[in-house]
Specification:
The protein has about 130 residues and is an alpha+beta fold. The chain has helices at about 45-55, 65-70, 85-95; strands spanning about 5-15, 20-25, 25-30, 35-40, 70-80, 95-100, 115-120.
């Protein structure tokens, strides 16, 4: 597979146990155990961005970094020709729930870019 330099992506994330997590300047929030989908994008360096998310040892820079200290990425989906906000809206309409407003969406008008999809990965609907 050729490396993609730009596009959008979704990380399917599993949080094994309910946990209170401080998310940078957003504050502290209780995250229920279960599966989440984080939608992001990169104008360049898409594969490098994804690889950074998958690393355990990193400086906490983005909202997702704080969650990934305690959770595991179980799937990565890449979308070279889709806009991250549109991907996020599709998942929201399919039942994704907001846990933290403005998570990962400080540069757009979306309510959040992290959606809780419940206790089973089987609930995930692929676009």
């Amino acid at each position: 597979m050729a490396k993609l330099d730009s596009g959008s992506y979704q990380l399917v994330i599993k949080l094994a146990d309910k946990r209170r997590i401080k998310v940078g300047r957003l504050g502290s929030f209780v995250f229920p155990a279960g599966y989440y989908v984080y939608t992001g994008s990169a104008k360049r360096g898409l594969e490098a961005r994804i690889a950074r998310h998958l690393r355990r040892d990193k400086k906490l820079r983005w909202h997702i970094d704080y969650l990934l200290q305690f959770a595991t990425v179980v799937e990565v989906n890449r979308y070279p020709n889709k806009v991250e906000c549109e991907l996020n809206k599709i998942l929201s309409r399919q039942g994704g729930k907001v846990i933290v407003e403005r998570f990962g969406s400080s540069d757009c008008m979306c309510e959040t870019h992290l959606l809780y999809i419940g206790g089973s990965q089987a609930n995930i609907l692929h676009q």
